[in-house]
Amino acid sequence: MTPPPEGTPGRRPGGRSARVRAQVLEAVRAELGEHGYEGLTMEAVAARAGVHRATVYRRWQDVGGLLADVLDAAGEDDWGPPDTGSLLGDLTALNEEIQESLVVQPSVPQALMAAAFRSAQAAEAQQRLWEDRYARCEAVVERAVARGELPPDTDARELLIAATAPLYHQLVLLRTPVAPRAAARAATAAALAAGAGAFGRSERGPAGRPPAGGRPVPGWAAFQ
For 125-134, how does the pLDDT look when each residue is reduced to its tens digit (9 = 90+)? Predict the structure, then answer.
């Protein structure tokens, strides 16, 4: 995917151009939340933003360009993971943030994830955003290792996935009402497993496979 010429993450214009970008991206989020990917059009975004549609077409080219820029813009913020003083507290607070963003109506994060399955540009931008968020959240694991809560070889990415995945599974895939204390329960399970060494890098071979001679996890072979 080639980002729109004026919309690349590394070159953000200022002044009027920045104001137009902010208005348009806010309109994209609103339209996407209300109408989903199928109802998102360049014309509707331009009208909602109060911008001439020729400007929107010239800068973003198509709906995929708009979605990609919305996702790239999300990675330009100064967000950081919670720092509560404990691994369990951090993971629980992180999960509560995720849960709140997924249950609010309309949920723009859910709409963007759905759109990423329909647009190659959005999918690439979504991947960049996931990588950014995981990289920032590694601080949670690094602090826990420094406090002696986790083994030094804990794989931060694996732990973070284990802690947050149950919420995405329930709210995005199953689309079922969130269970009481779901955020804390998922965080607790992941923290206990991590403390016991379940996410140690030395426990796995290349690409997350069981070490040579080790016993594979049930069902793992089905995904080879």
Answer: 999 999 999 9
